[in-house]
Design a protein that fits this description.
- The complex is a heterodimer of chains A (about 300) and B (about 325).
- Chain A is mostly helical.
- Chain A is about 70% helix and about 0% strand.
- Chain A has a single domain (about 25-55, about 70-295), classed as MetI-like fold, CATH 1.10.3720.
- Chain A has 13 helices and 2 strands.
- In chain A, helix 2 (about 20-25) crosses helix 3 (about 25-45).
- In chain A, about 45% of the residues are buried.
- With about 325 residues, chain B is mainly alpha-helical.
- Chain B has 12 helices and no strands.
- Chain B has helices spanning about 1-30, 35-40, 50-60, 65-75, 90-125, 130-145, 145-160, 175-210, 215-220, 225-265, 270-280, 280-310.
- The relative contact order of chain B is 0.14.
- The chains are: A mainly alpha (about 300), B mainly alpha (about 325).
């Protein structure tokens, strides 16, 4: 049986599609990706997937325990928790992705530019990065929240995304800079410079494509961080505002008044946060092993 | 050594100055200040005149650069100014709460180290076995579970099994050590779990690295018991990187407390910070950020000195 299978397996490996190869060599990462895709699907099509309206108040079903009608129970307003978790996935993934994308892209731009120009510019930029790194992530995010307040565009708090992106930026800038320093010494960069290309062209066309691997790795890793940070800020009442469903917000405020009466109000949103962050961490770790074996820490 | 420390302390000044400048101006880039929040907060009808008077009293009508100079002059003499909300000195507000937060942070560190070092080492020694897998799953989960939710789960657990809730009023250690520890152990566990996960992962990978070294092979070849190889030869070297992580995470622990203190109703630095942010109490925010930045930079310095002391290969420069 095994003997007969071997040649087939070998042939399959040779022509294997990269996505399939990822699934086979990184099963844990693929499991993480599956969870992420499921959450994204549920979040995007929340209107069709969720059994109830996320903001519909039903005083007849206040604090109902989990049952066939309300699989995860209801909260103190009679809102279905399962529904709110599905809509919360939309909030978490949208804010997580957008802020990680903004922070990583800005960080990568700063990192590559700093490495490319070197000298005084590099020194000044790196001191600035040092200063930002002296703030713990959540402290910096809170300072930005204090600075900007709220600013809703299409129902999304843009300032919240900025507040999460800014603490991510210096961390990414530091890592990308060191990757870009190696790239800068490559002959093709010298060649581009000798050919008289502009700085912008060398940075974006010649250097940027070669730091895509660390960029993608950090993008996924920081989505996990961003989801956690969004949940923390919302929990503190400084992130997403009611009545928008968000996991951190579901744990805030009156959830803690019902420890005894309705533990499901605390259990399920926290599980959702943990599962999402766990899935992104697994996927991110595997992506790192797969894209860049020497990048391992 | 002394020269190295002095040098490092001198290098702290530009970083801290940068933090001060950045925080001060970041908070004032966008218009809108505490006075409106404070006076209009009750929904009462407030005249423009009253707002102007209050602004004048707090010195907010002066040019930014003057306000900044004033604050910096205070910083140099360790005067952090007065809270714009309560009017009490910032140093006093912080002083009241500092002890509690530091105690939780230290307890969390101890918990983290006690959990992380044996777990990380076991995982490395039994790499690829079920022990390793269990430890890795537990530690990856530790990075995923938000500490504030873990805190809520702990409260649920205590409530259901012991019908006991952590008290709301804080008992200092020197008043009643038992009451103090039974109160603070839970928040310390909640933040310590994540911390231990980070440290355990570091310990695991550094033990695996060290076990590949030549001197381990030499020790084994000359017939040293495996237990001694691990404890004398491997652990001493493997724990060095772990110390760096412990130090770095300690500074971030203060950040983790921001959220966890809220869950346990602890009136600490984190809670004060959240209050300051929601009230736009800029002077208080600035003071707290400076405090956290100073802790961060000092802890980094201590880690580097410790590192060089423990590893003779590293020399001060």
């Amino acid at each position: 049986m095994t003997v007969a299978d071997t040649p087939v397996a070998v042939r399959a490996r040779r022509g294997r599609h990269p996505a399939l190869q990822f699934v086979v060599t990184q099963p844990l990462g693929a499991a993480g990706l599956l969870v992420i895709l499921l959450m994204a699907f549920a979040g995007i099509f929340a209107e069709y997937v969720a059994p109830y309206d996320p903001v519909a108040i039903d005083f007849g079903a206040m604090l109902a325990p989990p049952s066939p009608e309300h699989v995860m129970g209801t909260d103190s307003f009679g809102r279905d928790i399962f529904t709110r978790i599905i809509y919360g996935a939309r909030t978490a993934l949208a804010i997580g992705f957008l802020s990680s994308f903004a922070g990583c892209t800005l960080g990568a731009a700063v990192g590559v530019a700093s490495a490319y120009f070197g000298g005084k510019i590099d020194l000044v930029v790196q001191r600035f990065v040092d200063i930002l790194l002296a703030f713990p992530i959540i402290v910096l995010a809170l300072v930005v929240v204090a600075m900007l307040g709220r600013n809703l565009v299409l129902g999304v708090d843009v300032n919240l995304i900025v507040a999460i992106a800014i603490p991510i930026m210096p961390k990414v800038a530091r890592v990308i800079r060191s990757a870009a320093l190696a790239v800068r010494e490559m002959p093709y960069v010298d060649a581009a410079r000798a050919a008289g290309y502009s700085h912008a062209r060398i940075i974006f066309r010649h250097m940027a494509p070669n730091i895509v691997a660390p960029y993608l790795i950090m993008l996924t890793a920081y989505i996990a961080q961003a989801i956690l940070l969004e949940a923390s800020l919302s929990f503190l009442g400084l992130g997403v505002a009611e009545p928008m469903p968000a996991w951190g917000l579901m744990l805030a405020g009156n959830a803690s008044d019902f420890y005894r009466e309705a533990p499901w109000m605390i259990l399920f949103p926290g599980l959702a946060i943990s599962l999402a962050v766990f899935a992104f961490n697994l996927f991110g770790d595997s992506l790192r092993d797969w894209l860049d074996p020497k990048f391992k820490t | 050594m002394l020269r190295y420390v002095a040098n490092r302390l001198a290098l702290m000044i530009p970083t801290l100055l940068g933090v001060a400048v950045l925080t001060f101006f970041m908070l004032r880039v966008v218009p809108g200040d505490i006075v409106e929040v404070k006076l209009r907060g009750d929904g009462g009808n407030v005249t423009q005149e009253a707002i102007e008077t209050e602004r004048h009293r707090l010195g907010l009508d002066r040019p930014l650069i003057v306000q900044f100079g004033d604050w910096m002059a205070g910083l140099v003499t360790l005067d952090l100014g007065e809270s714009m909300w309560t009017g009490r000195p910032v140093a006093e507000e912080i002083g009241l709460r500092f002890e509690l937060s530091i105690q939780v942070a230290v307890m969390a560190t101890i918990i983290a180290v006690i959990i992380a070092i044996p777990l990380g080492t076991a995982s490395a020694l039994y790499q690829g076995t079920w022990i390793d897998y269990v430890v890795r799953v537990v530690t990856i989960a530790g990075l995923a579970v938000p500490s504030f939710w873990l805190g809520m789960l702990l409260i649920l657990f205590l409530l259901y099994f012991f019908n006991w809730l952590p008290p709301i009023t804080y008992t200092p250690f020197y008043v009643d050590p038992v009451a103090n520890v039974t109160q603070l152990i839970w928040p310390a566990l909640a933040v310590g779990y994540r911390y231990s996960a980070v440290v355990a992962r570091m310990v695991r990978s550094s033990v695996i690295e060290v076990l590949k070294e030549d001197y381990i092979r030499t020790a084994r070849a000359k017939g040293v018991f495996e237990r001694l190889v691990v404890s004398r030869h491997a652990m001493r070297n493997a724990l060095l990187p772990a110390i760096t992580v412990i130090g770095l995470e300690f500074a971030f622990l203060i950040g983790g407390l921001v959220v966890t203190e809220q869950v346990f109703n602890l009136n600490g630095i984190g809670r004060l910070f959240v209050q300051a942010v929601s009230r736009n109490d800029f002077i208080l925010i600035q003071g707290l950020v400076m405090l956290i930045a100073v802790i961060f930079v000092l802890v980094n310095l201590v880690v580097d000195v410790l590192y060089a002391t423990l590893d003779p290969r590293i020399r001060y420069r």
